[in-house]
Amino acid sequence: MDIISEEQLLEIRIIKDMCASAVLIAAIAALVTGCIVFIPKL
User: Fold this and answer.
1) pLDDT at residue 4 in the model
2) 10 phi and psi, to 5 degrees?
3) Cα separation of 10 and 27, whole Å?
4) What is the pTM of this model?
5) If you average pLDDT over residues 18-34, what whole number do you get?
6) Interior angle at CA 21, CA 34 and CA 17, nearest 5
7) What count of other Cβ atoms lies within 10 Å of the Cβ of residue 12?
8) What is the pLDDT of residue 30?
9) What is residue 2's predicted lDDT score, i.e. its pLDDT?
10) Contact by Cβ (8 Å): 12, 1
11) Rounded distance, CA 38 to CA 36, Å?
12) ∠24-20-39 over CA atoms, to 5°?
């Protein structure tokens, strides 16, 4: 989230942590999907 401020806002930190968690979950889901698709072909 883009905001210009000298203070640190708790709401912004929580939103950024939630977005980072969503990216981590998506990366893990992509890894699992790739393993399901490609491991049987090896």
Assistant:
1) 73
2) -65, -40
3) 26
4) 0.72
5) 98
6) 160
7) 14
8) 98
9) 64
10) yes
11) 6
12) 10
Burial class (CB in 10 A: 0-12, 13-18, 19+), 2: exposed
d(C-alpha 39, C-alpha 42), whole Å: 5
Q: How far apart are CA 14 and CA 41, in angstroms?
A: 41
3-state SS string over 1-42?
A: CCCCCCCCCHHHHHHHHHHHHHHHHHHHHHHHHHHHHHHHHC
Burial 27-39 (b: 16+ CB within 10 A, else e): eeeeeeeeeeeee
pLDDT at 19: 97
Q: What are phi and psi of 6, to 5 degrees?
A: -80, -25
